[in-house]
């Protein structure tokens, strides 16, 4: 049996550089000795190196999309101000609050100092820098316009993260209400209904059908509540797993979500906004259209749009104009988008037209999200009222019946 390879650990260190300035930082390494050797190779005389203690509650481990957007903006701003790349990375790493982000930035800095270009250094962290990000940086380095490309990347990441945040905001409220409804209903069925059930046993009369249904449901929850919740959890896990693993199921769900009233339009508009913003950014960075479309497909966030984009890539690679290829997908791309792309191609300003399309649909998403809360609130209140009110009515129906008999 092969021995398990040692894993990298995070070390904090202090040292003195060639100018005699005391500096400190964090790096990943296999061992303390290897890190000291690496620091000396970079011209740093290590004074103290030690393992970084793990956070008590795991705080700061996860790097979010907004952290990457901020990293792109900070790097863009500093390089546009004339700060050298390595120094800019050092400033960003030292100033970030999240230890995980600090570690990653210092690792990127070490890679660049070791002779790698920035794109290759970013590519070593694929969980946080996708192929699109890396390709744009590579295009900027090859063209000698890295500062300008970083500015476009920063704008792109900020816009896409804003879109994601708005979609999450739109979905969070109904999801939270559903959870509250499930909790309230469970409490009523497990703790409140049994109290009424004891009262009903003394009536000596048959119960209304609706009340009997609720009583039987309460008995089921009392005996098998753990089975019910395990079943719900298992169903959710299977759904997520199938969505991630099965392309056929993934396509079916993505296609169906576009048909859901209200939410389907929101998802469609956000996908069009990401399509336009990503393609505009890559085209403006000098990436060829065919190559750009491949990256755009993965950025749309919906397989229906991703499949359409890949078909456009095939068409354009054989000489077909983008506007002609897009016309076959008029069911998912509105006429306004087709017209703007057509004007952009004819005028030689496709990136500018696509930017305008992205701005328009991002504004549409903003308006829809703002209006969604006010639209969903009365609908959710009705659902909660029917659910909770129905349980209460079911419990009081026998009492009303007894009152009528006595009367």
From TrEMBL:
Keyword Nucleotidyltransferase in annotation: no
Q: What is the top-level taxon of the source organism?
A: Bacteria
Membrane topology, from the record: Multi-pass membrane protein
Q: Record's Gene Ontology CC terms?
A: plasma membrane
Query: Which Gene3D superfamilies does the entry link to?
Result: Type II secretion system (T2SS), domain F
The portions of this protein that span the membrane are 171-192, 199-218, 224-243, 378-399
Primary location group: membrane
Asked if the keyword Cell membrane belongs to this entry, the reply reads yes
Q: Where in the cell is it found?
A: Cell inner membrane
In its UniProt record, which GO terms are filed under biological process?
protein secretion by the type II secretion system
Q: Which InterPro entries match?
A: GspF/PilC, T2SS_GspF/T4SS_PilC_CS, T2SS_GspF_dom, T2SS_GspF_sf
Type II secretion system protein GspF domain residues: 71-194, 275-398
List the PROSITE patterns hit by this protein, alphabetically.
T2SP_F
Mind listing the UniProt keywords for this protein, alphabetically?
Cell inner membrane, Cell membrane, Membrane, Transmembrane, Transmembrane helix, Transport
Member of which family?
A: Belongs to the GSP F family.
Q: Identify this protein by name.
A: Type II secretion system protein F
Give the species this sequence originates from.
Acidihalobacter ferrooxydans
């Amino acid at each position: 049996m092969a021995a398990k390879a040692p894993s990298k650990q995070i070390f904090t260190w202090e040292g003195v550089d060639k100018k005699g300035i005391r500096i400190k930082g964090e790096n990943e390494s296999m061992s303390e000795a290897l890190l000291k050797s690496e620091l000396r190779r970079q011209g740093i005389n290590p004074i103290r190196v030690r393992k970084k203690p793990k956070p008590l509650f795991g705080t700061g481990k996860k790097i979010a999309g907004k952290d990457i957007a901020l990293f792109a903006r900070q790097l863009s701003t500093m390089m546009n101000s004339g700060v050298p790349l390595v120094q800019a990375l050092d400033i960003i790493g030292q100033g970030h609050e999240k230890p995980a982000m600090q570690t990653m930035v210092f690792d990127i800095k070490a890679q660049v100092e070791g002779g790698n270009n920035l794109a290759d250094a970013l590519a070593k962290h694929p969980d946080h820098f996708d192929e699109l990000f890396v390709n744009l940086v590579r295009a900027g380095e090859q063209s000698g316009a890295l500062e300008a490309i970083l500015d476009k990347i920063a704008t792109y990441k900020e816009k896409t993260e804003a879109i994601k945040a708005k979609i999450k905001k739109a979905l969070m409220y109904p999801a939270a209400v559903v959870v509250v409804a499930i909790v309230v209903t469970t409490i009523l069925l497990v703790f409140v209904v049994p109290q009424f059930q004891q009262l009903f046993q003394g009536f000596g009369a048959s119960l209304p059908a609706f009340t009997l249904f609720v009583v039987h449901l309460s008995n089921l929850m009392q005996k098998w509540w753990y089975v019910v919740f395990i079943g719900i959890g298992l169903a959710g896990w299977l759904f997520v797993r199938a969505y991630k693993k099965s392309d056929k199921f993934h396509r079916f769900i993505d296609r169906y979500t576009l048909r859901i009233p209200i939410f389907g339009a929101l998802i469609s508009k956000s996908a069009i906004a990401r399509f336009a913003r990503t393609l505009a950014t890559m085209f403006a960075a000098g990436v060829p259209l065919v190559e750009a479309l491949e990256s755009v497909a993965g950025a749309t966030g919906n397989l229906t749009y991703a499949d359409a984009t890949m078909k456009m890539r095939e068409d354009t690679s054989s000489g077909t104009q983008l506007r002609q290829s897009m016309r076959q997908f008029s069911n998912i791309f509105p006429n306004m988008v087709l017209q703007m792309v057509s004007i952009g191609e004819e005028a030689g300003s496709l990136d500018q037209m696509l930017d305008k399309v992205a701005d328009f649909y991002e504004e549409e998403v903003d308006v829809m999200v703002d209006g969604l809360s006010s639209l969903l609130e009365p609908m959710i209140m009705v659902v909660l009222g029917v659910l909770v009110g129905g349980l209460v009515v079911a419990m009081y129906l026998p009492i009303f019946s007894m009152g009528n008999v006595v009367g």
